[in-house]
Amino acid sequence: METNGLGSQGFPELKNDTFLRAAWGEDTDYTPVWCMRQAGRYLPEFKETRAAQDFFSTCRSPEACCELTLQPLRRFPLDAAIIFSDILVVPQALGMEVTMVPGKGPSFPEPLREERDLERLRDPAAVASELGYVFQAITLTRQRLAGRVPLIGFAGAPWTLMTYMIEGGSSSTMAQAKRWLYQKPQASHQLLRILTDALVPYLVGQVAAGAQALQLFESHAGHLGPQLFNKFALPYVRDVAKRVKARVQEAGLAPVPMIIFAKDGHFALEELAQAGYEVVGLDWTVAPEKARERVGKMVTLQGNLDPCALYASEEEIGRLVQKMLDDFGPQRYIANLGHGLYPDMDPEHVGAFVDAVHKYSRLLRQN
């Protein structure tokens, strides 16, 4: 290593690599922990920073994204930072209009309705150049992190992005998107290919900008049964990993571990464990010991405390963490929640969760 404390890309040298070691399946002295949506509305300082701007303007401001990414790290000894952004910047970069409606969530005024609507999407190869603001945010955050912990980049998986583009927002059934899968299978595959072609350079661009790990969010896996999942989600999830890794290598960049989080995708655990990702994220509906049996020794698991467990007392959180760590075992494991933090959660309880993971995982290793 260079002696000036700067790493290979001119970033400050990493001081805490526990998260990365666990992701690569190496032994760690304690269990690393981070939380999905750790930069979020449960923090009063997040609400303060966000108050002045609309959601996507915030996403487009590298300075704001950097500040929001760092806020949870000032409060808690988390083992990783995840860049503040949104999965829907990709459909936006493809030319779709997306707004964030307060209290309602994302909204696409003109969702995809017909096959011919695919013609209004931009060339996926141009998407990365539209998303320079994300790369700038990553580079700025890497510098400001000063090597404290690794920085995670992320994107939504093709099927999950497709659901938003067709539904025009959140949906409890995904009936419109699934209608496409049954009635327009060719157009569905065409759209999923467009999204994959956009995601690959976007994720590689995040690594080039300084991301030290990548998480792919297949948030809507649970709306597909095994057959639809194997046909319309899994092939693209695999393709993203394979192509990103090849491109990262071609670009002469150091390899980064990749995490796949398919919420409610428990029916595809074995397939996900063999999809080319170092880490498989689990939601809270999966029993850790059963998951470990099913995925074998080749991948690291991440998860999976029920986020609502943070409503419990700090003592109870400690007990639940203890049980979770016992079930997952000490190695090849990254502690997290089984989904993102909710806006009404108490930051003190998030702190109790993080501290309990650190404390108990060190004890586990002594015994």
Q: Tell me the structural class.
A: alpha/beta
Count of DSSP H/I helices? 15
N-to-C order of helices and strands: HHHHEHEEHHEHHHEHEHEHEHEH
Can you tell me the residue ranges where pLDDT is under 50 for at least 5 consecutive residues? Answer: none
Could you walk me through the main structural features you see in this protein, from its secondary elements to its overall organization?
This protein is an alpha/beta fold. It has 15 helices and 9 strands. The strands form 2 sheets. A 7-stranded parallel beta sheet has the order 1-4-5-6-7-8-9. A two-stranded antiparallel sheet has the order 2-3. Strand 6, helix 12 and strand 7 form a beta-alpha-beta unit. It starts with 17 loop residues before the first helix and ends with a helix. The model has no long low-confidence stretch (mean pLDDT 96).
Kindly list the characteristics that best describe this protein.
9 strands; two-stranded antiparallel sheet; 367 residues; alpha/beta; Uroporphyrinogen_deCOase
The gist of it:
With 367 residues, the chain is of the alpha/beta class. The chain contains 15 helices and 9 strands. It has helices at 18-23, 44-50, 55-59, 62-75, 89-93, 127-130, 132-145, 158-167, 175-183, 185-209, 226-250, 269-273, 288-295, 314-328, 347-366; strands at 81-82, 99-101, 105-107, 151-156, 213-218, 258-262, 279-281, 300-305, 333-337.
